[in-house]
Specification:
This protein is 0% helix and 29% strand. By secondary structure, the chain is an all-beta fold. The strands form four sheets. The chain has a twelve-stranded mixed β-sheet, with no helix packed on it. It has two domains: 110 residues, 3 Solenoid (UDP N-Acetylglucosamine Acyltransferase, domain 1); 100 residues, Hexapeptide repeat proteins (UDP N-Acetylglucosamine Acyltransferase, domain 1, 3 Solenoid), CATH 2.160.10. The protein starts with a strand and ends in a 16-residue tail after the last strand.
Length: 253
């Protein structure tokens, strides 16, 4: 038997399923989708039209909780919801409780944890990780190997370069005091982060601000400013021609 497809799953017209794939109970898959080989789609997942899911990808995985995890809620999460025209590379893992907007691309080896929302036309690069309870806006680019920590908020039109690391725990896992301050990063609309930059917990990158490659951000970054160095300090204003409002894209909110 090459595939397991539950009798309660709904698969739209023109959708194809590769070999050795598993589609569990009550899954809904739209029209004209392409499901690769060895794909697992967990129960109740909802997938729109014209979606491509490549080999060995897992959709709708429920999270595991270690005994020492700060997350104690073991209840089953709601189903993943995936919009039309999305593409998922090979060996991607999308957890339950996620909502993925239309025309999102998640490249090979990336992981999107539970309770994450991703806006339309965003790109999540190879081996990137988006941790739980995070919001990613529309038309963002999260490049290869970047790490978005839990409880982060990334606005629209943001660019996060390869190897960027964000953090959410100033106490590095020690003392109960850390739970009072546990917070990811906030990147306002149009914020750009250069390669291998590190953003400390709770810091806010202002709208249209730029963090230079290799910078370590220890304080909030003002809107429309470029910061460099470790610790990062303001260098100058972002050039006018680089601001979102001057890109001619229209409809930027």
């Amino acid at each position: 038997m090459q595939n397991f497809i539950s009798s309660t799953a709904t698969i739209g017209q023109g959708t194809t399923v590769g070999h050795f794939s598993v589609i569990e109970d009550n899954v809904q898959i739209g029209d004209n989708c392409t499901i690769g080989h060895n794909v697992v789609i967990h129960a109740n997942s909802i997938i729109g039209d014209d979606v491509r899911i490549d080999d060995c990808t897992v959709i709708g995985k429920q999270p595991m909780r270690a005994k020492r995890s700060i997350f104690k809620d073991d209840k089953s999460l709601p189903p993943v919801k995936i919009g039309d025209h999305c593409m998922f590379g090979a060996q991607v893992v999308i957890y339950a409780g996620c909502e993925i907007g239309e025309s999102v691309l998640v490249a090979d080896g990336a992981a999107v944890r539970e309770n994450v929302t991703v806006g339309e036309s965003t790109i999540i690069g190879r081996n990137a990780t988006v941790e739980n309870f995070t919001k990613i806006g529309k038309k963002c680019k999260l490049e290869t190997n970047c790490y978005i920590t839990a409880y982060s908020d990334v606005g629209n039109y943001c660019f996060i370069a390869p190897g960027v690391h964000t953090t959410n725990d100033n106490f590095l896992g020690r003392t109960e005091e850390r739970f009072k301050h546990f917070k990811g990063v906030t990147i306002k609309d149009g914020g750009r982060i250069g390669g291998n930059a590190v953003i400390l917990p709770g810091k806010v990158i202002g709208a249209d601000a730029v963090v230079a490659a290799g910078a370590v951000v220890t304080h909030d970054v003002p809107a429309r400013k470029i910061v460099v160095g470790s610790p990062a300090k303001v260098l100058r204003d972002v050039p006018e021609e680089q601001l979102l409002e001057n890109q001619g894209w229209g409809g930027i909110g």
